[in-house]
């Protein structure tokens, strides 16, 4: 027995139903544009995708819709001011570029010829991220239709980048360049997912990321392990000992100062994580791994969502070909990445890693450490008013309690948080089976329209509960 | 003031002087044959080299001189029985193949057009090993001339292989096939060197070698370090921890059972090592290294000559290209080699390594360990009668006290020791500056003729001091 539906919900659903076919036709048209940012051949398609979206947003009613140039692929920016000058401003983030895809990779149909089968829309970008960007267009129309407004209850800004699948190389500069126009009270990222079809969730944070490469130099050239072995330091051994010293016997990161500032999970957050219907065996199959392993005293979900890590992404040194070669190699290399959680500062991590590494090395081994650009972690407290609006909007759409997740990965959303100084929230309706970056990517149509509905409820709820003091 | 020269020495020197020019002409002819075993194009040259040597040994007086076939390059075998049936039998080992060489590698003259400059004979193979094989031919003639014999005082056998520079792939099988004909009381290896021009030395042993590759498997494919990092075991981390666990804080190998059976240096041996004019700074420059590092409680010479080691020759896993890739790699690999000293058994080492490695790995990491063929260590006790003969013969030739070294590397001599059950001794007159395997390889002519003399004195001394009980 479902709960009685209020009149606002009923009005939104009527509007969504009315525009359903046209919405899907439009989305299908967009998905036909192979906007693969990683492949130079597709640069014109990425531009076509940006132009298409800007035109569509204008058609939706956005008074402003612009294509913003970058040194790479263009982004789309749109803005629709609220009537009320005290209304909050929300910036929606997504991306219009997609991962590469080719039929022969294992697709059952052409990746850029969208088809609906069994209530699912199959196409590259259906879930990541065109479908999730696009639900906001019908969402805002339904919001207006159901409330009788001519402008949204909040000032709505959209920033849809064109290089997310290529690592967002120009995104931060773009945000810095346009920081004034992008200013907002909250960022809503629609480029994530939910726990599952049956468990709607809101993501409350992403881990940050610091990456480095450590090169260790020993002898000036590879030397004979018979003539010299046992009497000079071996940089491959030094690299291994460094990596081994990354973790203590409880699989905690052993770099002094690494945990400085970490915001620990509250008891309530741990309870909420534990309430999720988590099947560790199934998770292990997704992870294609054969055992769990991690920081003592934490569950798997805590480990991937809320605990910082140190992982070796690559290690190399000496002879790696077939057979053997009796050398002491002249150098060795380790690539490390550190996932960071709220409270950790990438600059502090870099200092801590450099000091720690230098202290681990024997005489005769010289190190060279290079850090790449870092991504800060982001986390929205459970009691943040905007987060509560997202939860209520989603709850109305799904007619179910909404739970909380976090995201273990890291994304450009953190740049928005950092440059704009704005809290970041996540509203996504994709599910793990949607096949991001894989063949046969799809979006569940039912969930896509729940996304439309959530978007429709969200703006009014936000304006009602988070109005600026006049 | 030099010591008075006895008549035997005088007779040997007269003979050597007499044949000096012809000896050098012959050696030059042999060095012109580019018997590079590693390059298939030179296979006919390696055969020509074997034929040339067999003919020359016949010319020297050996009643038997044969070319022995292998699946690869041929070896040369020669035999000259003593008259006395109770005389000991000595097998001389060397090789007639050489390292590759090309003028453009940095040679000052053509590597296969021998030239004498400043008392040095420059050519590929001059020291390694044709020169050192060849000094025995004039050595035995001088022995006969000085003693008036028609056959040597010991039964002399020569086995000169043709694939040493290619890793002796068929040597053990060859020795096994001909074990009966090769039977001897001692093996004299003439494929090593001395401490320096001014410090004649005898090498008393070589380290053995066991090699393995350890492959570690974690996730079934590379997985995302954001989504899964911190919660599953990383095989690159496991590989590093394994390598780090190889040594304890005193740089001793920490594999249980590794040191089982090790014959420790006696106080006398340590004293003898310490008496050598060792310059650690100079040694470090040769090692192209920037610090010494090794097992606590041992000097550098002890570490490279008389202590077993565990070295990483290669390590690899995950992403090693430019930039970063946020993965947990699906596998990692380590190539290890263990130098072994007298008393250690390669089979026991293999068992110890397998047991140790399995015990180091976390759940979810599977290992695959492959051991290659091993080489046993060899060591001749200082009081061995044959070793004492070598020391006396060398002492007469050099008119200086003869000291002792060992060799840190490993060689096919160990196969002779193992298959024939015969102690192995080393008689070499090459010096570190001779440039083995390098451009401008040379041999010091003065030292080469000291080698001739040593060979001339050795057979009589051996027969005198080590005669079989009748």
Account of the protein in words:
The structure is a homodimer of 470-residue chains. The first copy, chain A, is α+β, with helices and mostly antiparallel strands. Chain A folds into two domains: 289 residues, Zn peptidases (Aminopeptidase); 119 residues, Alpha-Beta Plaits (2-Layer Sandwich). The first copy, chain A, contains 14 helices and 18 strands. In chain A, the strands form five sheets. Chain A has a six-stranded mixed beta sheet with strand order 1-2-6-3-7-17, sandwiched between helices. Chain A has a four-stranded antiparallel beta sheet with strand order 11-13-9-14, covered by helices on one side. Chain A has a three-stranded antiparallel beta sheet with strand order 4-5-18. In chain A, a hairpin with a 6-residue loop joins strand 1 and strand 2. The mean pLDDT of chain A is 95. Strand 11 of chain A pairs antiparallel with strand 11 of chain B.
């Amino acid at each position: 027995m479902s709960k009685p539906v209020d009149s606002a919900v009923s009005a939104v659903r009527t509007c969504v139903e009315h525009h359903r076919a046209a919405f899907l036709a439009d989305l299908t048209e967009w998905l036909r544009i192979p906007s693969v940012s990683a492949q130079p051949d597709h640069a014109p398609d990425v531009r076509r995708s940006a132009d298409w979206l800007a035109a569509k947003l204008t058609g939706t009613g956005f008074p402003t819709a612009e294509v913003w140039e970058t040194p790479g692929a263009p982004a789309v920016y749109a803005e629709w001011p609220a009537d009320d000058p005290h209304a909050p401003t929300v910036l929606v983030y997504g991306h219009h570029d997609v991962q590469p895809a080719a039929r022969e990779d294992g697709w059952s149909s052409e990746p850029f010829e969208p088809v609906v089968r069994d209530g699912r829309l199959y196409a590259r970008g259906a879930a990541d991220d065109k479908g999730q960007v696009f639900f906001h267009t019908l969402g805002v129309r339904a919001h207006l239709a159901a409330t009788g407004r001519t402008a949204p209850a909040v000032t709505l800004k959209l920033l849809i980048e064109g290089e997310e699948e290529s690592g967002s190389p120009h995104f931060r500069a773009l945000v810095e360049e346009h920081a004034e126009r992008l200013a907002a009270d909250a960022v809503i990222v629609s480029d994530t997912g939910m726990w599952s079809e049956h468990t709607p969730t809101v993501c409350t944070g992403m881990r940050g990321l610091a990456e480095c490469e450590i090169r260790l130099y020993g002898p000036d050239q590879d030397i004979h392990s018979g003539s010299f072995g046992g009497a000079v330091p071996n940089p491959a051994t030094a690299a291994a000992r460094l990596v081994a010293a990354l973790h203590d016997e409880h699989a905690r990161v052993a770099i002094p100062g690494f945990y400085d500032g970490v915001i620990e999970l509250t008891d309530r957050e741990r309870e909420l994580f534990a309430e999720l219907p988590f099947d560790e065996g199934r998770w292990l199959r997704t992870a294609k791994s054969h055992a769990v392993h991690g920081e003592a005293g934490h569950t798997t979900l805590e480990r991937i969502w809320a605990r910082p890590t140190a992982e070796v992404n690559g290690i190399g040194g000496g002879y790696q070909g077939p057979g053997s070669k009796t050398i002491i190699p002249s150098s060795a290399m380790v690539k490390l990445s550190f996932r960071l959680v709220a409270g950790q500062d990438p600059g502090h991590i870099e200092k801590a890693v450099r000091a720690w590494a230098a202290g681990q090395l024997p005489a005769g081994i010289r190190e060279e450490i290079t850090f790449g650009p870092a991504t800060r972690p982001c986390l929205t407290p459970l009691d943040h008013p905007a987060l509560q609006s997202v939860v209520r909007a989603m709850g109305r759409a799904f007619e179910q309690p909404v739970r909380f997740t976090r995201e273990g990965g890291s994304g450009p959303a953190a740049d928005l948080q950092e440059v704009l100084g704005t809290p970041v929230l996540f509203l996504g309706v994709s599910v793990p089976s949607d096949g991001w970056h894989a063949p046969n990517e799809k979006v569940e149509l039912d969930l896509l329209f729940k996304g439309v509905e959530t978007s429709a409820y969200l703006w009014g709820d936000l304006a009602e509960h988070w109005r600026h003091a006049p």
